[in-house]
Amino acid sequence: MSSNKPYVEATTRESENRSSFYSFLIMDVILLVLGVLIFFDIIPIAGGDTTAKIFDLIILGLLLIIFTVIGIMSYKKSKVLKGDAVREEQLTEEIIEYIVNAYEDPDLTDMSDEEKYFERDKKIRELITEKFKGLKESYLDYVSEIVYTEIFPDNK
What we know:
Layout (H helix, E strand, L loop, with lengths): L9 H30 L10 H53 L10 H19 L5 H15 L5
Helix pairs in contact: 1-2, 2-4, 3-4
């Protein structure tokens, strides 16, 4: 069964994870500064009640820990995705090069432009799946569009 999710490039996923890391890092700094300001009563949030102040600092500390853990996980994931992005880029280039060289346009003279598009796309997909087995459907959609526009830049 095919998925309806559009393909998201590994470089985009890596960039999003890196952005998440920086966002959580900024939140950590804000929480740390806020905690210090509350601790030294520069921001009198508890109204002088020591128990409320300790409770507020514990909550801030827990948020700091949670955001730090999530930030570290995002950073590690972005490192993994960076390698995936390089491999994906190489595979995409290899597929494009192979199909551009292997594709032979069938005789489509009696077809409308829309029918030609679907027949050509079908042929491109067949060539890709014959040579490169096990590709995700969303990636196949993505790369077949790239190949199609490479071979037929004016016919999209």
